[in-house]
Amino acid sequence: DLRSASRDPLAAKLKWFLKKLKVDIDSDLIDIVYSSEKTVVPLAELTDEQKAGSPGEFGAVDNMRVRVLPVLGTMPATMGQAQAAYVLCEIGGKPFSPIAGERIGKNVRHKRLQHFKNREAAIRRQHQTDDVNSGNDNNGGSDQAYEGRMIQSKDGKSNIWVGPVQIDSDDVEYLLGEVWRNRCAVTGARLGTILEFVRWDLSKPSICSNLVLMSTHAIEKFDESGQGGLSANIRRKIEVRLSSCKVDW
């Protein structure tokens, strides 16, 4: 959608123009095709005659001039084919979900993974003592916990799976780019938002089909109220997205 557009001057201008008209760009009804490739060639300068005439005739909207030369002639055709393919699939009842946004850098993937490992370690420390005291851990904890096991939650109302993180850096890239599109699953926020992974169901391991990307603000609410603190519509969307994850080995 339009919020995903990056490095595309025309898409950025359309976003600004629609916001000015108070059009809801978050609507699921607005789909766009754009290029996230960094622009390397500037627009050709207008000639003196063009400047003296009507410069506005060379733009689709104010302050956004249509590229004249240089331009790769196949690009407009490629964009048109992508749009046509999307529409035909929708009409045929076979919608597809193209990958949107930029690739996730190695440092970002590593940071997200380390933060998630720290979160999982904190969950384990929070509940481990109670579990040991209850007599459920016959081996003192560390080795058995490392292999993955079920323990009782601190309030005694549910079971929690504790064990090693089940994803790696490649899984992080897959989850960020293809599953959650680098956005908070609750608010849809992206730019200027700190995003982290959480387990959707603490009774299940930390596999791809059980990890949700949320902003730190949404995580605070989720940790306090759990899934019940989210609206039914948001829960449904998250579960649909999780069900589409790849099979975890």
UniProtKB/TrEMBL annotation:
<dbReference type="GO" id="GO:0061504">
    <property type="term" value="P:cyclic threonylcarbamoyladenosine biosynthetic process"/>
</dbReference>
<dbReference type="GO" id="GO:0061503">
    <property type="term" value="F:tRNA threonylcarbamoyladenosine dehydratase"/>
</dbReference>
<protein>
    <submittedName>
        <fullName>Uncharacterized protein</fullName>
    </submittedName>
</protein>
<feature type="compositionally biased region" description="Basic and acidic residues">
    <location>
        <begin position="119"/>
        <end position="130"/>
    </location>
</feature>
<dbReference type="InterPro" id="IPR045886">
    <property type="entry name" value="ThiF/MoeB/HesA"/>
</dbReference>
<feature type="region of interest" description="Disordered">
    <location>
        <begin position="119"/>
        <end position="146"/>
    </location>
</feature>
<feature type="compositionally biased region" description="Low complexity">
    <location>
        <begin position="131"/>
        <end position="143"/>
    </location>
</feature>
